[in-house]
Design goal:
By secondary structure, this protein is α+β, with helices and mostly antiparallel strands.
């Protein structure tokens, strides 16, 4: 494909030497307004452009050539559109393991699962644990025959594809078979490059950004956990012992069934997530690969740059260069006003699509919204509409300790408001369709992911406004959004009186106000305060069965539909043994259900005889012993123990598990494997694990019923 344009940079006052330069007229700068002398400077290639793209007079200097094509020639991509049904290859592998985490240099692939679209699944099973050459060749034969457009996996960026490529090299098999030409697969930290085909990692591109999962707050984002949330059928789990010794399953029906299930799940999750990305690519008229691989700012860059181009505007500065004194700006209001346990239920008043609807209500947009003045004295939030329909917002920023005066032209509707209007209408249509479906069905889940994908687009636009590096951003719009958002939330808090906690777009209350009456009041307040004719800000109500709020921002447990939802890093314990999260989940649920046997349940966790390896062990990446510079790292200690115990050198980075034990020098670490049980741990550091139990109980606000606290209290019970 030949590019329809050359890479270029705009410059002020004079052309850039050794470029094809042309003076242009009738263009306006986003920040500096009208400017008499502007040049467009074309380069032969991107390398030449990047060599000189550093002068402060250079504008839009870091735009990649493909992005520039999207901006300047938005219909160009249509000539190369694939009008046939996409052929999607779903792929998963299973590898040899024996105690250690699999390493491609030593552990062969023992099974490969493949399927195109809705065709029958094909499984390639190795006859032995140490020779995968035959199934690798069979895999490439299948790929060549089916000629897929997209290769899909789960965590395939960081496991399946690198592992497959490494095994191909060991077997002297070219990885070009993954593509449509003769080029080998090229792997970077962030992307898998396959000639003529798209690689889509469900986990990396979609699951990490899935707001539905944020709401569900799962224990982890492993494939089968996500599959259960979306109620996919026929999920097969294997226990830890089997997964640590896959060598024993080579060629068995058990392995066949396990991989068959994984391929079904991969296809099922892709059918939920991928249509939303395809829809997005079609919406903004870009290549599907760009939507899969693009950064979160890609969508906003594309939308805004096209609008600037259409209105003859050049972005002359990034957000932070245009507003250096406003870099460390204030964000949303969050807080915990009345922490504690609420067993009789609370209610949450959420503002529907808060920031996008603020954009619509106040017409906030890079072309309508400007910073007029910055004062060094804080004042109250104010809004004044002039006779000529210019809205002036006076916004306090307590983090900057400044008052920021912003003007908004209400005479012409901004392009951002129009774009948000269209997305909001489509999102409501999707939600209406969802109401006609069973919420346990895959169809409902697919629509839910699509409407949440639109929500991600909406939020990415409003977030992009304030990014310091944004070429096409608008700090004025961002400050107007967040500042007005803070003001309206605070006004709502003052109205409700009994606020327990708040986050960016809602408050939790213990009072009994009628949501309809509150919305009527809010509608009138906004229309009167801003002197406008149309308001899009509206509240929705969520009834919460019971809840516990910590004295910290956005840290809470809620009981909903008899399920515990955990929110906040203080409850996660990701760097602690599993016993921490087990207590949070078990005791937290009992607490919210007002379990009369709560003390007895807590006491079990203090009984070291009840400890299990699964709850107290941790894992760590371990390098070859000789690669450690000092003798003290945990990894080196465990590596030495492993080599001594099994008589095998660790040649590549792997993952080992351990528990903390007592030693003459204080504390140490003992390797544990699938062959071990609690009886093999002779000097367990019980005090260390009791401290973790105490930590979890304290996080739940139950310090007063810890055994040690009850014992102290009993001394005075006379």
């Amino acid at each position: 494909m030949k590019s329809p344009i050359l890479p270029y940079i705009y410059s002020k006052d004079e052309p850039i030497p050794f470029t094809n330069s042309k003076r242009i007229k009738n263009m306006q700068l986003l920040y500096d307004g009208e400017y008499n002398i502007i040049y467009k400077n074309e380069f032969r290639n991107m390398s030449d452009m990047y060599d000189v793209a550093h002068d402060v007079t250079h504008m839009e200097a870091r735009v990649k050539i493909l992005d520039r094509i999207y901006y300047d020639k938005p219909t160009f991509i249509n000539d190369y559109a694939n009008i046939n049904e996409l052929k999607i290859l779903y792929l998963d592998i299973e590898t040899d393991t024996e105690n250690l985490f699999p390493n491609a240099q030593e552990n062969a692939i023992i099974a490969i699962g493949l399927v195109i679209n809705n065709e029958p699944i094909k499984l390639l099973m190795a006859d032995t644990y140490n020779d995968d050459s035959i199934i690798l060749k069979e895999m490439f034969k299948y790929i060549k025959e089916k000629d897929p457009d997209i290769i899909v996996g789960y965590n395939s960026c960081f496991f399946d594809m690198p592992y497959l490529c490494d095994r191909c090299k060991i077997n002297n098999i070219s990885t070009s078979g993954f593509g449509r030409g003769n080029r080998e697969v090229f792997i970077t930290d962030k992307k898998i490059y396959i000639e003529g085909r798209i690689h889509y990692d469900i986990f990396e591109r979609s699951v990490k950004l899935d707001q539905q999962l944020f709401k569900k707050s799962p224990k982890n984002k492993k494939m089968k956990t996500v599959a259960r949330i979306y109620k996919l059928p026929d999920i097969i789990e294997e226990d830890e012992t089997a997964l640590s010794n896959m060598r024993a399953l080579v060629g068995t029906k058990r392995l066949y069934d396990y991989l068959y299930s994984d391929i079904q799940i991969t296809r099922g999750l892709s059918n939920i997530y991928l249509p939303a990305i395809i829809s997005l690519a079609e919406r903004i008229n870009v290549a599907l690969e760009s939507c899969i691989d693009g950064s979160p700012a890609f969508i906003s860059n594309t939308i805004f740059s096209r609008e600037y181009k259409a209105t003859n505007i050049i972005s002359d500065k990034t957000v932070i260069i245009a507003n250096p004194e406003l870099g460390d700006k204030q964000g949303a209001l969050v807080g915990s006003f009345a922490p504690g346990l609420y067993l009789e239920g609370v209610r949450k008043f959420d503002v529907l699509s808060y920031y996008p609807n603020l954009v619509r209500t106040l017409n906030l947009d890079p072309l309508t919204t400007r910073i007029k003045q910055v004062k060094n004295k804080l004042e109250s939030y104010q809004a004044i509409m002039s006779d000529d329909k210019i809205l002036t917002l006076s916004i306090p920023d307590t983090k900057l300790n400044k008052q920021i005066i912003i003007t908004v032209d209400m005479n012409v509707r901004g392009f951002t408001s129009t774009f948000v209007d269209e997305l909001m209408i489509e999102r409501m249509e999707l939600k209406s369709k969802m109401e006609t479906l069973d919420d346990n069905s895959p169809e409902w889940a697919s629509l839910d992911v699509n409407q949440l994908a639109i929500k991600v687009i909406l939020n990415s636009i409003t977030g992009y406004f304030g990014q310091g590096w944004a070429t096409f951003g608008s700090l004025a719009s961002y400050i107007a959004i967040t500042g007005s958002g803070r003001f309206l939330i605070q006004t709502l808090i003052d109205k409700m009186k009994n606020t327990i906690a708040l986050d960016t777009d809602g408050i939790v209350i213990s009072s009994k106000e009628d949501i309809k009456e509150v919305n009527i009041w809010l509608e009138k307040f906004i229309l009167d305060f801003y002197n406008i004719n149309k308001n899009y800000i509206e509240l929705e109500e969520e009834v919460i069965e019971s809840a516990y709020f910590r004295d910290a921002n956005k840290q809470y447990l809620i009981l909903q539909d008899d399920k515990l939802i955990i929110h906040g890093a203080s409850f996660k314990g990701s760097n602690l043994p599993k016993i921490f999260s087990t207590i949070i989940e078990d005791i937290g649920l009992r607490m919210l259900k007002d379990d009369s046997n709560l003390e007895e349940a807590i006491d079990i966790y203090y009984d070291s005889n009840q400890f299990t390896l699964g709850n107290i062990k941790k894992s760590i990446k371990v390098k070859p012993v000789d690669n450690y510079a000092s003798k003290s790292p945990i990894g080196r200690q465990l590596g030495i123990q492993y080599e001594k115990r099994f008589g095998v050198k660790i040649k590549h980075e792997t993952r080992l598990e351990y528990v903390k034990i007592k030693s003459k020098r204080g504390s140490s670490y003992q390797l544990v494997t699938i062959f071990d049980n609690m009886e093999d741990i002779k000097r367990l550091d019980v005090d260390y694990y009791i401290d973790i139990v105490n930590n979890a109980i304290d996080r739940l606000g139950l310090t007063y019923i810890r055994p040690d606290q009850r014992a102290q209290t009993s001394i005075f019970d006379f």
